[in-house]
Design brief:
The chain contains 9 helices and 3 strands. The protein is mainly alpha-helical. The chain has one domain.
Length: about 190
């Protein structure tokens, strides 16, 4: 068993504070998996809300997709619900992603995969940065999802949305495991 003196222990603490923690950028597959988990979560939330607030008959195959003419009455009666559903989906998406980025820098998908969103200076995300990053999601998806695919080829693993908002997604380093101090070891 190796014994450390108190001065050696203090020296290790000072050295660790001076050197800092090296963070590893989260890769394409880890981030993609986290994003798919988040999309599934948002889809479940939106589906439940839409089913609660809309008439059941619009979700049947015959009632919604009507075999008849496109300009039949059921289509026009369903149109406001389609608009409502799309707007609701957009609002839930914004609230979900921006809310979790502000709260923890992690969505549930990122939490499950041990990755976190940070700013260029390693600080937490602000509201303006979160909204800018969400707009960056739209830009990343607009051109055949190239902005997301770019993560696989970028040296810092940044997509277009990360570059726009000056953010990184990093792997969370594992917490150091320390043994609990027992009374027998304290007194000698």
């Amino acid at each position: 068993m190796i014994m450390y003196s108190l001065s050696d222990y203090r020296e290790d603490i000072v050295r660790n504070k001076r050197e800092g923690i090296t963070l590893e950028f989260a890769g394409f597959w880890r981030r993609s998996t986290a994003f798919l988990i988040d999309l599934f979560s948002v889809a479940v939330i939106c589906s439940v809300i839409i089913l609660v607030f809309s008439p059941y008959r619009w979700f049947s195959f015959e009632g919604f997709w009507g075999i008849g003419d496109v300009f039949d009455e059921p289509f026009w009666r369903a149109f406001p619900y389609l608009i409502f559903g799309n707007l609701l989906s957009l609002l839930v998406n914004i609230a979900y992603f921006v809310g979790f980025w502000l709260w923890r820098g992690q969505t549930p998908g990122k939490m499950l995969l041990g990755i976190k969103l940070i700013r260029m200076d390693a600080s937490n995300v602000t509201l303006s940065v979160a909204l800018l990053r969400y707009l960056g999601y739209i830009v990343s998806a607009a051109v055949l999802f190239i902005g997301f695919i770019w993560i696989a080829f970028d040296s810092r693993k940044q997509g277009f949305h990360d570059k726009i908002a000056d953010t990184y997604v990093v792997r969370i380093p594992p917490a150091p495991i320390t043994a609990p101090v027992t009374k027998a070891s304290v007194g000698g």
